[in-house]
């Protein structure tokens, strides 16, 4: 089992703060900004308090404050200044706050930041401009070994929970009408569900009926659905599965199992050229293009 980090290298700090290691060393030497421990071989090791301080300082530094002035401030002054900055640049502040909550596995702080955002901003804006960048950043940090997969799972589960709640809130919009009905699923081996949950939210918000099947659904398991949902539009989100080289085979298997009569909408940034000119197939590489299309047809 992986051990969650409680101490960090200067490279970790660089990845987390987007401040070059060389700059961190200068800040440390010139302004006594951080107080790392050192190993027997004189390698810097930073604890969680050092990391939190650097993230706060970086947020204010990027907002235009001089590092020399920030280094002279005590923690209370720093927090006061951050609160003031919140009003002028809430997106950056929210991102840094949510990332700090992720590192500390702080459920209360994570939910509190989201609650404040929801009171001030549209949910679509929050998802596209804050939550999606947060997830991408967490994935990058995991790939570089800066954070543990448990950090990414922590925020993923909080965001999934939020998406389910927001979808339940807008379900009152669903009405008996002649709008198409949608079946949403992820293919076998695909477990990245957040994008599909958001697609479901956008559909439900517009009054469409949806059947949400979730992750890891074999293509043949869609056949029984057709007996009850003959005219359904199928929606899937490809992140890691099927593999790029298997995309054509998967599309053909879908057409064989479900047929070309039902439209098949694929979301996700997976390049695929519809060489056969399949009319029932629609591709949305960006979630914004999917949302824009829904705006046109609803």
From TrEMBL:
It comes from the Bacteria. This is MerR family transcriptional regulator. The keyword Plastid does not apply. GO terms for molecular function: cobalamin binding; DNA binding; DNA-binding transcription factor activity; metal ion binding. The keyword Transcription regulation applies. Residues 7-57 form the HTH merR-type domain. Keywords: DNA-binding, Repressor, Transcription, Transcription regulation. Gene3D superfamilies: 1.10.1660.10, Cobalamin-binding domain, Methionine synthase domain. It comes from Aequorivita ciconiae. Signal peptide: none annotated. It holds the Pfam family B12-binding_2.
